[in-house]
Write a structure and sequence with these properties.
This protein is α/β, with parallel strands linked by helices and 206 residues long. It has helices at 23-39, 63-68, 84-96, 121-131, 148-156, 176-185, 199-203; strands at residues 5-8, 44-52, 71-75, 102-103, 134-138, 161-164. The structure holds zinc ion (ZN).
Amino acid sequence: MGYEYVAITDHSGNLSIAKGMDEKTILKQMKEIDKLNDKFEDFIIFKGIEANIDSFGFLDVPNKILDDMDIVLEGLHSGFNQNSKELTRRMLTAMENEYVNIIAHPTGRKILDRKAYELDFEKVFDTSKDTNTILEVNSHLNLLDLNDGNIKMAVEHGCKLVINTDAHSPIHLKNIHLGIATARRGWAEKKDIINTLPLKKLMKNF
Ligand SMILES: [Zn+2]
């Protein structure tokens, strides 16, 4: 792909549909990544995880593990039937967690399947900016989340974005162009997208 870095962010814990990793598996994976990084000269793998936000906004991975991660993504994967106020509070609580860097697929929409949650976007974007929490533009062809309209609003609020592939297999890495196109539709520029940065500058954001 011509990349300088990549982040591996498998699902954590109790998310059985996604074969989430338990603590033991997470530690094993971290060791494997260390070994690979030792071999690379001009490439780095970031250790990361996509943890779950429980119905109160707390994470399902202990802080001592999150502390050792380079990148922590947080995603809502359950309890979608909460009302707008509850969902927004949950999202804000996750953003206020000092270990959380990125909110994955922030609005939960699945094209032709599930509508976006009714979040209070003013609050979400303000808190993203205040807590320096980056919002994902997910390139998966069924998600494209944030969508163009949300991206424009996020940029206007001064939020930082990251274009991710949500790859569950190497072939999905190619979906990145869909995320880039979506970000462009939302008038995002290079300066708004954190993973346009070269490695050294990127590191200053984590
Ligand atoms: Zn997810």
